[in-house]
Task: inverse folding
């Protein structure tokens, strides 16, 4: 076979003919004048239709109600109030508040004879916002302790929504319940926003002036619209299900994520100082009655993901804040429940949180409750366990 | 600088404005040189780390110059060997003794693709059409052409040089619109589609446990295997769409790398639609020489089809093996080469048994075509197991599934993909009949939707949960 024949045979045997080569110049094209108007119009109309359809669809498929008509009040939840709320990511939840405005297993009067009482202070996580009451950490912990010690425990959650000054200011109210133990629940986002004017419980109970009207700029309006969008919330829910992506995203979030960095930044040190003042204030008021105090730490998804996956990130210390909190508790003679302990080695923590919302869901609250029961039982508090645990 | 990314897009747009300020050749070449070097520098962390790469480029350039001055087969073979060995050494292939490896961090970004461009020049240096490659400016701009640096496509020098110097492609509102359309598609495929597909596959891997019911295990395993090719397509073709769009703003037309690969009805056809520039390069420099060598040595005509079987095997073994440095990729290469070789052998045997026209008739049967597509997809998904997993992970899958579930998994993938791809091919034929679907109005709407989705996703990632938690407080 000649060389030319062989080359021809190869060419025809192959599966792919190459294109390329210089082209003839085509006729000069011009966009019709109407298109300078029509094309931007198509883009705007498409964007509007798309956003309306997607947002409307998301609102229909994933309804949400976070009004929390009972708990969203300046000082405390409303008395004898029932609310029905739902995170887009979770089920409908009923929250009942008793005559004192507490989410509780019973009335807020004197506990029945033989029943111990746990008074819980704190923000949303403390009373189980968006979680059925039976799954809230305190109820789960109380059940586990009762199972070991035999003594029923009545849980009274005083929490609502507020900063550390307001939470601490309600210590006398907690003491008035004659509890066998008082608990304060904190999460990093409780610490992030410092009380206005510093830690000042007395000031926090005074009536506050109505906030001045606020005119949002375009960027703020855009950001608020994004935050309130149901479609965005659902997209977040699925995106944050991937621990690696969530951790990587979260760690780029500057000050908010700095509690995961060691040594802790001066801003976080200042926040811990406020907590130190709050714990000191509470324990000083509990001391005369000898009521034990427990500081409960509820981790956020980012930290729980780091502990669950065991992922090592340079410069990141997922337990830096836990050590600081344990130190504060120890300094004031309080028991420390590290709620992040239960997440270690789980593989993924995303199933324990409302990922877009950020709060612990039923599974997460239950996990923290188990850790709390274990820690409290190990300390063998006489008020809960008159005899050593079985 | 990643591709696609908004940083790359900004860099590309600013560069394109600068590049198009003047039509003077020297201006365009110098702007391109500066852009190529700036882009490359974004991957470099120190002078020492760039020296091996620079050495590789310098070897290629010396090879071109030397061969143009002293054209000889001996010199060509010497530089061919040096270029190949240098590449294997820098990429730390498993067969390179560890003590030979450089003990410091050095940049290798896009080296596999630069290798093909440089090797192409080393092979062709003596040909007349390659005189321009001897110019240092042309050489470096071609080798480091920034839109195609990270992952191709592999453009051949004559095509590149023609657009760089002689044929200045038009850049009107239509071209700009089309470029942005490709860029938006690229962003959407990589940042949305491929992320969703990869997440779904990872979730299935995490959920696959030995204590699950048989049907659930089988379904998860089938999804694990079948989602990866889709992810890879969205990821790689998305990247290619993006860089083709960017390059077009510089009046360059990069070659296409994908052409609806999953509608292929056999594995040979698949490789003419998947990573086209790689298979095309290897067609020119491996398949053709192997075939020619065989034909020159054995003149019996009956043997010719079987030479193609051998040439296909060698070519696609190299396609597979090139993808990585470990034994997994050697096996991946064996499966690619084996797949196309078997496919060719089947074609030869069927043509002998049914005659060419009989085989063609069989190939026209809708059911045969549907199952052929399904089998092609299934085989590709199977070979990719050696692309994305490890020997240990594969052993784990086998242990979790067991023999019967494994067979069921592949049967499920085969049947489902046969049906799904038949629908895809049918919808492609149907939509091809409606010119309106390709109109600029539809494309504008398409770009708007994709851009909105990408922007929302990027904003979500940029503003994670802590802000949201307090939205009601």
Result:
């Amino acid at each position: 076979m000649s060389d030319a024949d062989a080359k021809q045979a190869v060419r025809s045997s192959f599966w792919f003919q190459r294109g390329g080569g210089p082209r003839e110049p085509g006729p000069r094209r011009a966009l019709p004048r109407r298109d300078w108007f029509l094309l931007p119009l198509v883009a705007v109309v498409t964007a509007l239709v798309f956003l309306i359809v997607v947002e409307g669809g998301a609102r229909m498929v994933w309804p949400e109600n976070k009004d929390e008509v009972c708990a969203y009040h300046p000082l405390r939840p409303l008395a004898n109030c029932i609310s029905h709320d739902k995170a887009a990511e979770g089920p409908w939840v009923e929250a009942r508040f008793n005559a004192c405005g507490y989410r509780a297993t019973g009335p807020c009067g004197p506990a029945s004879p033989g029943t111990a009482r746990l008074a819980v202070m704190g923000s949303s996580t403390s009373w189980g916002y968006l979680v059925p009451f039976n799954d809230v950490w305190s109820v789960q912990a109380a059940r586990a302790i009762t199972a070991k010690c035999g003594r029923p425990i009545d849980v009274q959650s005083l929490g609502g929504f507020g900063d550390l000054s307001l939470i601490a200011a309600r210590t006398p109210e907690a003491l008035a319940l004659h509890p066998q133990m008082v608990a304060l629940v904190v999460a990093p986002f409780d610490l992030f926003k410092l009380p206005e004017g510093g830690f000042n419980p007395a000031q926090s109970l005074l009536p506050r002036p109505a906030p001045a009207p606020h005119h949002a700029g375009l960027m703020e309006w855009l950001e608020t619209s994004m935050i309130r969008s149901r479609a965005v919330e659902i997209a977040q829910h699925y995106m944050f299900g991937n621990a690696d992506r969530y951790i990587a995203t979260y760690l780029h979030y500057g000050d908010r994520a700095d509690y995961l960095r060691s040594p802790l930044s001066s801003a976080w040190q200042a926040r811990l100082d406020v907590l130190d003042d709050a714990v000191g204030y509470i324990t000083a008021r509990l001391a005369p009655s000898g009521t034990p105090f427990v500081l409960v730490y509820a981790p956020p998804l980012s930290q729980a993901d780091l502990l669950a996956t065991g992922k090592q990130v340079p410069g990141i210390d997922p337990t830096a804040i836990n050590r600081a909190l344990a130190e504060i508790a120890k300094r004031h003679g309080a028991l420390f429940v590290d709620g992040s302990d239960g997440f270690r080695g789980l593989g993924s923590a995303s199933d324990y949180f409302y990922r877009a919302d950020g709060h612990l869901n039923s599974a997460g609250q239950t996990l923290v409750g188990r850790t709390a029961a274990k820690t409290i039982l190990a300390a063998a508090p006489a008020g809960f366990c008159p005899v050593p645990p079985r | 600088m990643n591709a696609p990314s908004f940083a790359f897009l900004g860099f590309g747009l600013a560069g394109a404005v600068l590049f198009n300020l003047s039509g003077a050749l020297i201006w365009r070449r110098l702007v391109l040189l500066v852009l190529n070097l700036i882009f490359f520098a974004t991957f470099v962390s120190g002078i020492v780390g760039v020296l091996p790469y620079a050495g590789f480029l310098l070897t290629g350039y010396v090879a071109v110059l030397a061969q143009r001055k002293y054209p000889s087969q001996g010199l060509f073979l010497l530089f061919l060997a040096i270029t190949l060995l240098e590449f294997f050494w820098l990429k730390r292939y498993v067969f390179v003794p560890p003590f030979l490896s450089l003990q410091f961090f050095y940049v290798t970004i896009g080296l596999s693709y630069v290798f093909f461009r440089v090797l192409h020049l080393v092979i062709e240096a003596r040909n007349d059409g390659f005189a321009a490659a001897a110019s240092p400016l042309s050489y470096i701009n071609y080798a480091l052409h920034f839109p195609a640096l990270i992952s191709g496509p592999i453009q051949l020098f004559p095509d590149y040089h023609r657009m760089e110097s002689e044929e200045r492609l038009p850049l009107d509102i239509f071209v700009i619109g089309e470029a942005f359309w490709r860029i938006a598609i690229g962003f959407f495929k990589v940042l949305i589609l491929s992320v969703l597909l990869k997440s779904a596959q990872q979730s299935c891997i995490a959920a696959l446990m030995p204590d699950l019911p048989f049907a659930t295990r089988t379904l998860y395993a089938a999804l694990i295997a079948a989602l990866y090719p889709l992810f890879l397509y969205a990821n790689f073709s998305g990247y290619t769409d993006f860089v083709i769009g960017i390059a077009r703003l510089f009046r360059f037309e990069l070659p296409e790398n994908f052409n609806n690969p999953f509608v292929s009805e056999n594995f040979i056809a698949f490789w003419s639609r998947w990573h086209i520039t790689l298979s095309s390069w290897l067609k020119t420099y491996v398949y053709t020489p192997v075939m020619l060598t065989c034909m020159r040595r054995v003149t019996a005509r009956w043997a010719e089809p079987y030479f193609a079987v051998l040439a296909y095997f060698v070519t696609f073994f190299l396609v597979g093996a090139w993808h990585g440095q470990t034994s997994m990729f050697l096996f991946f290469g064996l499966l690619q080469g084996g797949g196309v070789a078997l496919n060719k052998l089947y074609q030869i045997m069927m043509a002998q048994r049914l005659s060419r026209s009989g085989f063609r008739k069989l190939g026209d049967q809708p059911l045969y075509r549907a199952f052929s597509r399904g089998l092609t997809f299934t085989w590709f998904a199977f070979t990719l197991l050696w692309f994305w997993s490890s020997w240990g992970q594969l052993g784990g899958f086998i242990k979790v599934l067991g023999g019967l579930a494994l067979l069921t998994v592949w049967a499920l993938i085969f049947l489902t993909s046969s049906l799904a791809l038949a629908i895809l091919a049918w919808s492609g034929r149907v939509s091809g009949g409606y010119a309106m679907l390709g109109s600029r109005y539809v494309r504008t709407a398409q770009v708007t939707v994709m851009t909105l989705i990408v922007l929302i996703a990027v904003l979500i990632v940029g503003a994670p949960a802590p802000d949201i938690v307090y939205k009601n407080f």
Q: What stands out?
A: The first helix of chain A runs from residue 3 to 13. Confidence is low (pLDDT under 50) at residues 13-21 of chain A. The radius of gyration of chain A is 28 Å.
